[in-house]
């Protein structure tokens, strides 16, 4: 059995180049992906790039303090992220802090006052009748139908969430743009407005549209803006509905079930979000409808909803649909086939559990008496963060220099392997941080930089453990090549245990903390994992190769592996014990 084991060990020792080639290919692939994606530098956090930090505090109405709970706070965070990202700020950070606070960090480049207005107000939810809709980028305004469903045991508005527009049931292809435009104009003029009083209509000012909004100043102008509307442009989407009152017709954008942007002409709001008493996602197994969203209305809301659905049910698609509009974004556009007067309704279609729960949360949030007050709004300058970053980098450079000097003085030739390993670890860390920015939103802040600096000591510690194990084997009288292989299992166990403890601490810190401290924990955990990769795929194979070179194998005094300077003992020789006593002549 000893011979095959020796052969396997020899085979493992003879192919360290495979591991080195693997890690070099990984570095080349990550570097190529970094340049191909155009993200050649890590994304900086607000403390390094500068920007605005806003602290919002949730304030419930009297008698409804229970509205502040984890579910509602998470929903508010989701809505605020949509608001801020609608301004074109993809790097904004929105997260809860404690029970009733939300922290919004907006990097430099965004108007802080506009951002405060976007995130600090309560979400507005409306039910508006659909007058016209089509995939964004189409031609003139024309009615575009969406699929409808059949009613179930309880009154329901059946539709898929943001259904894709098809040609079936649409206006005749031979109809001229003038005829289509006239149909939309007539629909705008005939749009039912039971919830809007005559005084509200008289107060509707066309000045909103002149300033970039979409107020219902004139059906013809609204139709012209609809024809030019491009919902694929984030800036255009963020301005749709600005300055529009609930009593006015407006334009809106939303995604259909095919993932395409859909544009809409919507009539005045018929039902307000506060008219929804509650909404919940349920799995309807009786009718086979799958996941549905059930809504219960207040007494006043039930009357409004019954009136509008009764009128919409008499129309042809898409004017038998109503749009659920949250902050100017159409989140669903179900169609109606009958008047829904029972005070409740069910929206069904191609819902998944997640999409049904998201829509139910949005509907419920529109009815919550939950508002936010701005506790503080601070401007963070990049100069302050830049100075701190410079000081941190100087401290890191000093620490790295001291580590290198120590390696050179103590390990001599072995320090060459350690320094190369540090460079490989640095390359992997940099490329991964650059790619994780656009991939998962990772932003490099000051605590994250501290985590990377701490990782230098963790990585160097792994090298030292392995080198000391090899030197111990040489002190026992073994030559270098056997020493490298015999020392590896012992060093490997110690390195894995040490890195596991560091990674566990980083994971716990990441879970129990919020904000910038998570950046430190994430970086520490990432670099700890990379330490294992570098030691296994680079440091150990490289030392195996170097052990074959005469400079190291012969124990040169500058190699760091000189047996004489290490105080090596002569090889231990076995003494054969006789199996039986030897008889002497006297005996």
UniProtKB/TrEMBL annotation:
<keyword id="KW-0813">Transport</keyword>
<dbReference type="InterPro" id="IPR000731">
    <property type="entry name" value="SSD"/>
</dbReference>
<feature type="transmembrane region" description="Helical">
    <location>
        <begin position="446"/>
        <end position="467"/>
    </location>
</feature>
<keyword id="KW-0472">Membrane</keyword>
<comment type="subunit">
    <text>Forms a complex with SecF. Part of the essential Sec protein translocation apparatus which comprises SecA, SecYEG and auxiliary proteins SecDF. Other proteins may also be involved.</text>
</comment>
<keyword id="KW-0812">Transmembrane</keyword>
<feature type="transmembrane region" description="Helical">
    <location>
        <begin position="389"/>
        <end position="409"/>
    </location>
</feature>
<keyword id="KW-0811">Translocation</keyword>
<dbReference type="InterPro" id="IPR022813">
    <property type="entry name" value="SecD/SecF_arch_bac"/>
</dbReference>
<dbReference type="InterPro" id="IPR048631">
    <property type="entry name" value="SecD_1st"/>
</dbReference>
<keyword id="KW-0653">Protein transport</keyword>
<protein>
    <recommendedName>
        <fullName>Protein translocase subunit SecD</fullName>
    </recommendedName>
</protein>
<dbReference type="Pfam" id="PF22599">
    <property type="entry name" value="SecDF_P1_head"/>
</dbReference>
<keyword id="KW-1003">Cell membrane</keyword>
<dbReference type="InterPro" id="IPR055344">
    <property type="entry name" value="SecD_SecF_C_bact"/>
</dbReference>
<dbReference type="InterPro" id="IPR022646">
    <property type="entry name" value="SecD/SecF_CS"/>
</dbReference>
<feature type="compositionally biased region" description="Low complexity">
    <location>
        <begin position="141"/>
        <end position="157"/>
    </location>
</feature>
<dbReference type="Pfam" id="PF21760">
    <property type="entry name" value="SecD_1st"/>
</dbReference>
<dbReference type="Pfam" id="PF07549">
    <property type="entry name" value="Sec_GG"/>
</dbReference>
<feature type="transmembrane region" description="Helical">
    <location>
        <begin position="416"/>
        <end position="440"/>
    </location>
</feature>
<comment type="function">
    <text>Part of the Sec protein translocase complex. Interacts with the SecYEG preprotein conducting channel. SecDF uses the proton motive force (PMF) to complete protein translocation after the ATP-dependent function of SecA.</text>
</comment>
<dbReference type="InterPro" id="IPR048634">
    <property type="entry name" value="SecD_SecF_C"/>
</dbReference>
<comment type="similarity">
    <text>Belongs to the SecD/SecF family. SecD subfamily.</text>
</comment>
<feature type="transmembrane region" description="Helical">
    <location>
        <begin position="520"/>
        <end position="539"/>
    </location>
</feature>
<keyword id="KW-1133">Transmembrane helix</keyword>
<feature type="transmembrane region" description="Helical">
    <location>
        <begin position="495"/>
        <end position="514"/>
    </location>
</feature>
<feature type="compositionally biased region" description="Low complexity">
    <location>
        <begin position="194"/>
        <end position="211"/>
    </location>
</feature>
<dbReference type="InterPro" id="IPR005791">
    <property type="entry name" value="SecD"/>
</dbReference>
<feature type="domain" description="SSD">
    <location>
        <begin position="414"/>
        <end position="545"/>
    </location>
</feature>
<feature type="compositionally biased region" description="Polar residues">
    <location>
        <begin position="169"/>
        <end position="182"/>
    </location>
</feature>
<dbReference type="InterPro" id="IPR054384">
    <property type="entry name" value="SecDF_P1_head"/>
</dbReference>
<dbReference type="Pfam" id="PF02355">
    <property type="entry name" value="SecD_SecF_C"/>
</dbReference>
<feature type="region of interest" description="Disordered">
    <location>
        <begin position="135"/>
        <end position="221"/>
    </location>
</feature>
<feature type="region of interest" description="Disordered">
    <location>
        <begin position="563"/>
        <end position="587"/>
    </location>
</feature>
